[in-house]
Design brief:
The complex is a heterodimer of chains A (269) and B (200). Chain A has 10 helices and 2 strands, in the order H-H-H-H-E-H-H-H-H-H-H-E. Chain A has 269 residues and is mainly alpha-helical. Chain A has 2 domains: 55 residues; 203 residues, no CATH class. A two-stranded antiparallel ribbon of chain A has the order 1-2. In chain A, helix 2 runs antiparallel to helix 3 and helix 6 crosses helix 8. Classes of the chains: A mainly alpha (269), B alpha/beta (200). Chain A: It is a multi-pass membrane protein.
């Protein structure tokens, strides 16, 4: 492996000039974004420094319950992101439970599979591997799950008449909602398909770029990226199926009704 | 002809009811009332589309002993606004040949059945939704303003069709604002007010 180039504080300070440039553009063209830009940049730096400090501690501690706790916290945050995207909300915190359950299920299965078969660190639950892996799978699973949930909740509201027309003629809830469930799953899976077919041609994936910059041989970085892509698509698939079925179960009942009374529009945030 | 087809006992939801009603085979009941009084809710509850308590019997058999889809094949609700789940009109009919026969009786051009839903007018949609719901020849029909968007000729033809069904023993609960229509089809009329049914 080539020695990686260590960045100094001075290097970062020079790069931060680019943020000042953005601010200048905002002022010059009266975009009104400079305040938000400054806050976002500040948040980004603070959040990343904080996570860096936390990860250092967690890696050094090598204490599995702590690793699990960190991953659960990440899952909870991802579940929340899935929950707040859709305009429609399942009542009684339904979006949160559905989102967190789907995200935890998909991330758990794909991460454990990768750690025990492909990556095989010793031990397999080593925080140095488990946390970053869970993180990247989570980010992707979150995206798939939130798109699918948003699509499903939006479409059942829009297509209430179509769903009920089928129920009125004796269709089961599965038959009446099947088309919308499939459309929601497709919606959630499209970004994964897109990013797989574009990677290496349109984009150099971030992880791979990072590894090459950090000195890893490109071929090795590519192998990692391929593994990762498989993990991400598997995770997205599981998340999309879980979120759609969990949400659909709440949108209907044992008497095959469409229960839109269990949906509420999100209030202003 | 006094055989009881549909019996509703203490049926209520959190919003409307309780309702008690007995409908004989071949009988048409007309329901009128201000909008928002609960007429559509009442029909939806009979079809078990909205949660409700109480008991409903079809030919003496309690609703709970039917699977919900089986119940709705017997007690068919036709909402005022029809829903369409596919682009092609033909996809919405289980028996296309039988649908063409009924459609012709409601003055619908035969080629409509081969076109897209997008090209249908409101009145055409309403008649096709009626056709769709008449095809299974169910023992009970719940009709929510079935002829609201129709001109007088089509309305007459639709009523003739419904009268045939009544003669065959179908029980019809019909929400209608037209007192002339109510007079032509039904012997008993009810008014819905504040979520309660009272004889008119």
């Amino acid at each position: 492996m080539m020695p990686s180039i260590v960045l100094t504080g001075q290097d970062l300070a020079i790069a931060s000039v680019l943020i000042l440039l953005d601010g200048a553009i905002s002022v010059a063209y009266r975009l009104g974004l400079h305040r938000q830009l400054a806050i976002a940049a500040g948040r980004m730096v603070l959040q990343l420094l904080l996570i860096g400090a936390i990860l250092t501690r967690v890696f050094d501690a090598a204490f599995p319950p702590l690793t699990l706790l960190v991953i659960l916290a990440m899952v909870a945050l991802a579940g929340r992101e899935v929950a707040v995207r859709p305009e429609q909300r399942l009542i009684r915190m339904g979006n949160y439970t559905v989102g967190a359950a789907a995200v935890a299920f998909a991330t758990g299965i794909t991460s454990i599979l990768a750690l025990t078969t492909a990556l095989r660190p010793q031990p397999w639950y080593d925080a140095r591997y488990a946390i970053p892996l869970a993180g990247i799978v989570l980010g992707n699973v979150l995206n798939a799950a939130s798109l699918a949930l948003d699509a499903l909740l939006g479409s059942v509201v829009r297509e209430k008449a179509a769903i009920e027309a089928q129920l009125c003629l004796g269709a089961t809830n599965r038959q009446a909602m099947g088309r919308l469930l499939r459309a929601a799953m497709r919606r959630g899976l499209l970004p994964v398909v897109n990013s797989m077919s574009a990677s290496g041609v349109v984009t150099l994936p971030g992880i791979m770029t990072g590894q090459i910059l950090a000195g890893l041989d490109p071929m090795e970085a590519v192998k990692y990226q391929i593994l990762l892509m498989f993990l991400l698509s598997g995770g997205a698939g599981l998340a999309v199926v879980a979120v759609v079925f969990l949400a659909a179960r709440r949108l209907t009942d044992a008497r095959h009704r469409l229960r839109l009374d269990r949906l509420a529009r999100a209030g202003p945030r | 002809m006094t055989q009881e087809r549909l019996r509703i006992q203490a049926m209520r939801s959190s919003l409307v009811g309780p309702f008690d009603l007995s409908v004989a085979a071949g009988e048409c009941i007309a329901i009128s009332g201000a909008s928002g009084s609960g007429k559509s809710l009442f029909l939806r509850m009979v079809a078990d589309l909205d949660p409700n308590t109480g008991a409903v019997f079809l030919d003496g058999r309690e609703r709970g002993s039917f699977a919900a889809p089986a119940w709705r094949r017997q007690v068919i609700y036709v909402p005022a606004e029809s829903g369409w789940w596919s682009e092609a009109v033909a996809d919405h009919f289980s028996d296309l040949a039988a649908a063409r026969v009924l459609a012709a009786r409601l003055d619908l051009k035969p080629e409509l059945l081969d076109g897209p839903v997008l090209r249908l007018s409101t009145g055409e949609k309403q008649r096709l939704a009626l056709v769709r719901s008449l095809l299974p020849a169910s023992p009970v029909l719940l009709l929510d303003e079935p002829t609201a968007a129709l001109d007088e000729t089509s309305q007459g033809h639709a009523e003739a069709l419904l009268r045939e069904r009544l003669q065959a023993g179908t029980a019809i609960l019909m929400v209608t604002h037209r007192s002339d229509q109510a007079a032509r089809l039904s012997r008993r009329r009810f008014v819905m007010a504040q979520g309660r049914l009272t004889p008119a």
